[in-house]
Amino acid sequence: MRMKLILGALSVTSLGFSSLAASSPLVRSIGGDATPASITGVRDQFRADLGGDGISEINWDGVPDSFSVPNNLPANFFNGVKLSTPGAGFQVSANNGVAPVEFDNTNPTYSSTFGVFSSQRLFTGVGSNIVDVSFGEPGSRGLVGGFGAVFTDVDLTNSTTMEYFDAANNSLGVFAVPVGIVGSESLSFLGVSFGFGRTLISHVRITSGNTALGAGVNDGTPLGTGNVADLVAMDDFIYTGIVPEPETYAMLLAGLGLIGAISRRRKLP
Fold this sequence. Notes:
Elements: H1 2-13, E1 26-31, H2 37-49, E2 55-58, E3 81-84, E4 89-92, E5 123-126, E6 130-135, E7 142-143, E8 146-152, E9 161-165, E10 171-176, E11 187-193, E12 203-207, E13 233-240, E14 243-244, H3 246-267
Helix pairs in contact: 1-3
């Protein structure tokens, strides 16, 4: 019994689990111009919301050339993050001098459509404008307390959104990325958290614009729906440290309890 009480305390204090009841989200968002400075202040506010320590960031610039354009990025390239899409995979834009930058390999107009927040690479789904981001190491699932991302060239209201889900796959809300304030190469940021120490988010569905990047698709091209194409690419991701989902952690506690019981039995005369 003593061991069970100690492990129970660890589950609350060491890993930061709190009640999984829904709480009001804290949303940080801004639509800026083509300069990183126009959104950096709000991005930094979101970083502070997450607590400062234990934050992870992906800026794509450390991806090897062998996993960037013209090649696809593996879905499990980053530790603790799993990518999925209804499309044909994912691409990170190339470094200058290696291949055309900012997805000009797909369409030569894109380097004048998209801007960059942290030079010089961007991220996109291939053949789809939907990317799902989930958390946890291979064979396990994890939770984070907040997730945010930088987008470029959001032109239409509600064309670009992020939907957050809890461990039971219940939606925690759909949040729209603000429209940029210049016509091309604008930068926007959206980050949502649920209070310091609250690890509610199991995965995030990102919808970037209203259609996928493509060879014959220019920003503003008329679509059959009567709308025009709003092409959007992604830059930096930022999120809290990942903790195991409650059921995964419960299995860990049960395993530790079994080890403790075996150890005590071995000590009996």
